[in-house]
Design brief:
heterodimer; A: 317 residues; B: 305 residues; mainly alpha; MetI-like fold; two-stranded antiparallel sheet; 2 strands; globular
Chain lengths: 317, 305
């Protein structure tokens, strides 16, 4: 920046400046270490705390004061959850919809991405606009609600998979990746006489693994984390419930109770009177952990891929 | 000229028929799930009751009701206030975090900090709000710390106090997305010319000075474009966190446009009013986003060329 400012300065003053700069740098580094420790603590503490509560005796948790370690260790909370038939159904549905949506979504988005990557395609521009507009034009909840009703998606497992297969952002990310591949790849396939569909399936898809991993992670996370679809379209059928929706029900009860100052006391009474091993906070914390863990086991391994994907999406999107 | 294109169109289409066949199912699919629902906007001009063969048309009655209703101003205030808080807190925190992460010299440490900072982004809002509820509970860590430090005498039920609600939403958003949002800034930082740092170092600029005078100006155009784009989304204050964290005491400050649509449309079955509000939101958003895009393109050209 100030490249020319000090060229005429004396060596002594530069040296003195160097020393004070070094001291300032040390303070800066110390501050950064403290700051990063703070950030890591803030990011991890709520999770660690809830993990501790989920492994603590349910009645004991009502007394409060659980921080990073359970006071009375138990795995009963998890046993209770995995013996609950409703939560087992919820877990199964969450897994099933995530798997099906990810496979289906990857197929649809990658095919759309391949089509848009063919610059010579006569409808390329029109299709790009047609797809991109869906990011901005949304009819809103109520018209969608009636469309799904008319399509028979109410109280139907298909509502979890069928409507969400296409995502304009994902298509753009995949298209950009395919356009970055060497042209010789597709040309070689052409010379071998492969048609478009075969080129897409046999030549392009196999080399798209990094971008498919990224988009697949996004689709999977979106599906696993979704509770809203269950609330609006399938809340009256127990056999269609999902893990996040069950957690949402427990959570809203807990938060509604906060509007009454006696809530904690009442919750304690209820627990002491009835179930010895089941309390709202223990159930909620345990489901929270079960709902969070699968994703937390996957995303760190895909980090280098999705970081790139975000960059591509933000530049071209 | 027109005849020439037309003459070329058909042979090209025949040659590219396979691409066309591949497009058709996707085009139909997108039409059904993204464009067909727009027909439902007619509900905004009707007194819609499901199951009736003929709907009663009422013109702009629902819009007139909305724009004169005190409730509308309340939800607009909530939406804009929470959007604004999210915008300011979100940008300030993610830029600061990105600058500081960039200053970590050890690659392994940097990677670990980044991975941990992405964690909340991958949690659902339900899980996040459940963690936040434990954090803010009467016996949660925030109350315990504040009491130890002597800031308060007795536990504060934060989620029962309307004064805190917007800030809880704002900081929850920061917690959830701050790490993720650093990705784009850190990518922009790698594009800064390393020679700038070298010559600054020769001039005796310390690390803070280099961060402040080189790194921050280096990502200025990225920041500007992102701010403009985000202003386009200002009516999208979200609904998940508000929906999940609100209760009877905080509903007056928690209700955003999207929460209102769910409550009036789905719970109270006033479909026409909810559609009118949803339509208003989409139309205003499109105007804002198109404007923002034009503006950011102009800035991007100016600063990137």
């Amino acid at each position: 920046m100030n490249a020319n400012e000090n060229t005429s300065g004396k060596t002594v003053s530069i040296r003195r400046k160097r020393i004070s700069t070094k001291a300032a740098d040390r303070i800066f580094v110390a501050f950064n270490i403290i700051f990063m420790t703070f950030i890591v603590t803030v990011m991890l503490y709520p999770f660690a705390n809830t993990l501790a509560i989920s492994f603590n005796n349910a009645t004991d948790s009502l007394k409060g004061g659980i921080y990073l370690w359970p006071r009375i260790f138990t795995t009963d909370n998890y046993k209770n959850i995995f013996e609950n038939p409703l939560l087992l159904i919820a877990f199964r549905n969450s897994v099933l919809r995530t798997v099906l949506s990810t496979i289906g979504g990857l197929f649809v988005c990658s095919m759309a991405g391949y089509i848009l990557s063919r610059r010579e395609f006569i409808f390329n521009k029109a299709l790009t606009i047609y797809f991109l507009l869906t990011m901005y034009v949304s009819a809103g909840l109520i018209p969608t609600f009636f469309l799904y009703r008319d399509l028979g998606l109410f109280n139907n497992f298909a509502v979890y998979v069928v409507p969400g297969l296409f995502g304009a952002f994902n298509v753009i990310v995949i298209r950009t990746y395919i356009q970055g591949l060497p042209d010789s790849l597709v040309e070689a396939a052409r010379i071998d006489g492969a048609g478009e569909f075969r080129t897409y399936i046999q030549i392009v898809l196999p080399v798209c693994k990094p971008v498919l991993a990224t988009v697949g992670l996004w689709i999977a996370v979106g599906n696993w984390n979704d509770w809203f679809t269950t609330l609006i379209y399938a809340s009256t059928r127990d056999n269609l419930t999902t893990l996040q929706y069950e957690l949402m029900k427990v959570l809203s009860t807990a938060i509604a109770q906060m509007s009454s100052r006696q809530a904690a006391f009442m919750a304690g009474q209820a627990a002491a009177g009835g179930f010895q091993n089941i309390t709202p906070i223990a159930i909620r914390s345990t489901i929270t952990i079960i709902a969070a863990v699968p994703i937390l086991c996957v995303y760190p391994f895909l980090q280098k891929y999705f970081v790139k994907g975000v960059h591509v999406g933000s530049v071209k999107g | 000229m027109q005849t020439q294109t037309r003459r070329k169109l058909l042979p090209t289409m025949i040659r590219q028929r396979e691409l066309i066949f591949m497009s058709i199912p996707i085009v139909v699919y997108v039409f059904i799930f993204s464009y067909l629902p727009l027909r439902g906007w007619e509900m905004a001009f009707q007194h819609f009751r499901p199951g009736r063969a003929e709907q009663e048309w009422v013109g702009l009655q629902h819009f007139r009701f909305l724009f004169t209703d005190a409730g509308f101003f309340r939800i607009m205030r909530n939406t804009l206030a929470m959007s604004f808080i999210n915008l300011v807190l979100g940008f300030a925190c993610s830029i600061f975090l990105a600058l500081m992460i960039n200053e970590i010299r050890k690659k392994a440490v940097k990677r670990v900090v980044q991975t941990i900072s992405y964690l909340p982004h991958f949690l659902s809002w339900v899980v996040a709000c459940s963690l936040i509820a434990n954090f803010l509970a009467g016996d949660g860590i925030l109350n315990v710390l504040m009491m130890r430090l002597g800031i308060i005498d007795q536990p504060n039920i934060f989620l029962a106090n309307p004064d805190y609600f917007w800030w809880i939403v704002g900081w929850s958003n920061v917690w959830k997305s701050v790490g993720w949002n650093t990705i784009i800034y850190l990518a922009a930082i790698t594009a800064i010319d390393p020679e700038l740092y070298e010559s600054a170092e020769l001039d005796g600029a310390g690390r803070f000075a280099r961060m402040w005078h080189i790194t921050l100006p280096g990502i200025k155009s990225t920041i500007l474009v992102l701010v403009i784009m985000n202003i386009g989304w200002i009516l999208n204050a979200g609904f998940e966190v508000q929906w999940l964290l609100h209760n009877g005491l905080t509903i007056d400050v928690a209700e955003t446009i999207d929460v209102f649509v769910i409550r009036w449309g789905i719970n109270m079955r006033n479909y026409s009013l909810a559609t009118a509000l949803g339509m208003f939101k989409t139309v205003v958003s499109i105007v804002l986003i198109v404007g923002a895009n034009q503006l950011s393109k102009r800035f991007a050209q100016e600063s990137l060329v």
